[in-house]
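Renewal narrative, Specific Aim 1. Our central claim is that a sequence can be written position by position from structural information alone. The example that follows is taken directly from our test logs and has not been curated for this report. It begins with the structure tokens describing the chain, in the order in which they were read.
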């Protein structure tokens, strides 16, 4: 192993970073900061994600990315959005010679940006995105660690997809918790009806549903009112979901 190999670190393990950070926002901010450090002449980096056809800069580092990203969103065109939607790398060596994307290059030049690099993240997925770097110099990424940045974007693809799965899992867990709590209240109310009417659980539930429809009140709310009126205290919510030991 040479000295250069020892001194030149590869891209960080972003999946581990994702699991170590408290929120997705923290992870994306760390991603932008890492990309900016890997691009010596860049003065800004933004992370764009698009959900339901709406792009948004979800994290940035440096000073130039937010207004440049917003200019592209405003005209629904630009290197950032092309990388995100087409799933390929978009490099601009000199904005003054660029004739794509309508008036965006002129805006970039007036803002002090001469070159940019946009790398796709999680292309063609439900959370497609792009890693966007901006430089005040022409050919600002000629000396950048392009292989490292591409590896970073590739790792970010897996991490963003994992983050979305974790978010979906948390939503599913919350929904299950709510369902279990509702079920516990309904079971308590059904027990009261069974005791009062000396009927089966099926008949008790049918009685509660009929009352809910006639009063135009949600079944859970009706059951909670019944439990409170009989016991004098709010119904217990049940054990909920418990983590695996």
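The sequence written for that structure reads:
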């Amino acid at each position: 192993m040479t000295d250069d190999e020892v001194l030149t670190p590869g891209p960080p393990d972003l999946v581990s970073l994702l699991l170590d950070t408290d929120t997705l926002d923290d992870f994306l901010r760390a991603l932008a900061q890492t990309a900016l450090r890997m691009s010596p002449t860049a003065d800004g980096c933004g992370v764009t994600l698009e959900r339901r056809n709406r792009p948004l800069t979800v994290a940035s580092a440096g000073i130039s990315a937010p207004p440049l990203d917003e200019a592209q969103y405003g005209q629904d065109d630009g290197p950032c959005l092309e990388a995100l939607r087409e799933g390929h790398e978009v490099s601009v060596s000199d904005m003054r010679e660029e004739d794509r994307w309508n008036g965006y290059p002129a805006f970039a030049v007036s803002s002090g940006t001469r070159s940019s690099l946009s790398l796709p993240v999680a292309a063609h997925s439900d959370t497609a995105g792009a890693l966007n770097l901006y430089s005040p110099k022409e050919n600002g990424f000629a000396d950048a660690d392009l292989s490292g940045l591409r590896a970073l974007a590739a790792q970010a693809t897996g991490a963003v997809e994992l983050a979305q799965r974790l978010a979906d899992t948390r939503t599913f867990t919350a929904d299950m918790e709510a369902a279990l709590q509702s079920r516990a209240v309904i079971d308590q109310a059904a027990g009261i009806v069974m005791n009062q009417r000396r009927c089966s659980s099926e008949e008790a539930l049918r009685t509660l549903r009929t009352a809910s429809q006639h009063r135009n009140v949600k079944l859970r709310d009706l059951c909670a009112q019944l439990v409170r009126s009989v016991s004098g205290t709010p119904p217990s919510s049940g054990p909920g979901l418990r983590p695996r030991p």
